Amino acid sequence: MKKFSWRKAAILAAVVPMVALSACSSEGGRSTEDNNAAGGGQVATTERMKIALITHAAPGDTFWDIVRKGAEEAAAKDNVELLYTSDPEGGRQAQLIQQAIDQEVDGIAVTLAKPDALKDSLKKAKDAGIPVVSLNAGETVSAQLGAFTHFGSNEKLAGAAVGMKLSELGLKRPICVIQEQGHVGLEARCAGVKEKVAATEILYVPGTDMAQVSSTVTAKLQATADADAIIGLGAPYTLTILKAVNGAGSKAKVASFDMNPELAQKIADGDVIFTVDQQPWLQGYGAIDSLWQAKRGGFTIGGGQPVLTGPSIVDQATAPAVLEFAKEGVR
């Protein structure tokens, strides 16, 4: 699935101001009037909807800015009031789902990184008649938890793509760095790498503390002199890993998942060999737009199957072409 097919479908309009559900919420956006003044398009004339987007985003992870930007654009087009909240801890994310139910939202878009922690609250959403879609994490459990579709990358397939790319480059002893132990998507990524490169080692780091990420990676590299590659599972973590590799004097090549402008530039410069982009803008846009489409016409996007937004490998040859989009916050 290519990004442009979604973006051309969007009528550019206002970024709807977001309403906080809890202290975890972040707020932002522009009014319809502001956007129309800037030359934006017409907002849908369908009945106003209220949709909650609830993610497991950790503070400082720029990946989620891209997801949110896609969601904002869909909300602006679809006359949706978007309520965005996040918490990386499964129990607190479940509480945010309950708060959305209490707010009587018209739909919930949720990431399923810790599905066991969310199943009870999602059942309550179903019992309340609130449609649910999932995005980013939890593809394999999405349907059984009540979501009518899922937007994201097949994480094990993405990991296998990384493993194949490493093998093509002659790299045989990679370290796969997981910043959140128990996150089903991250675990699947490293499992996919290991499926193709059997000697892959898994390294767990505390993703909420970049100083500890750096020190843990440095110590591992110093103790594993034969490591020839190290893989970050998110752009901010990869950039920290890159500094640790340089500081440790390691010859390990650095690869990544996901994208931000700084990482795209590092790939273009040859400092990072490649990244696997799951196109998160599409995940945010598709999740919100699918809930609107379900209400306006009873449409079920995906036909009961996940809608894949990746994987797409970006290397030094292709990075300049996507760098422009990364700077715009859509890659």
Largest sheet: 6 strands, parallel
CATH superfamily heading of the largest domain: Response regulator
- Amount of beta strand: 15-25%
CATH class of the largest domain equals Alpha Beta
Determine the structural class based on helices, strands and strand pairing: alpha/beta
Order of strands side by side in the largest beta sheet?
2-1-3-4-5-11
Number of strands: 12
- Contiguous low-pLDDT stretches (5 residues minimum) are 1-40
Helical proportion, percent range: 40-55%
Mean pLDDT: 86
Order of helices and strands: HHEHEHEHEEHEHEHEHEHEHEEH
The total of helices stands at 12
Q: Quick one: overall form?
A: globular
In short:
Helix content is 44%, strand content 16%.
Structure commentary:
- The chain is an alpha/beta fold.
- It has 2 domains: 3-153 and 279-300, Rossmann fold (3-Layer(aba) Sandwich); 155-277, Rossmann fold, CATH 3.40.50.2300.
- The chain is 44% helix and 16% strand.
- The protein contains 12 helices and 12 strands.
- The protein has helices at residues 3-9, 32-37, 63-78, 90-102, 115-127, 155-168, 184-196, 210-223, 235-248, 261-269, 280-297, 319-327; strands spanning 49-55, 80-86, 107-110, 132-135, 150-152, 174-178, 201-204, 229-232, 253-257, 274-277, 307-308, 312-315.
- The strands form 2 sheets. A 6-stranded parallel sheet has the order 2-1-3-4-5-11, with helices on both faces. A 6-stranded mixed sheet has the order 7-6-8-9-10-12, with helices on both faces.
- It is globular and about 60 Å long.
- It starts with a helix and ends with a helix.
- Mean pLDDT is 86; it is low at 1-40.
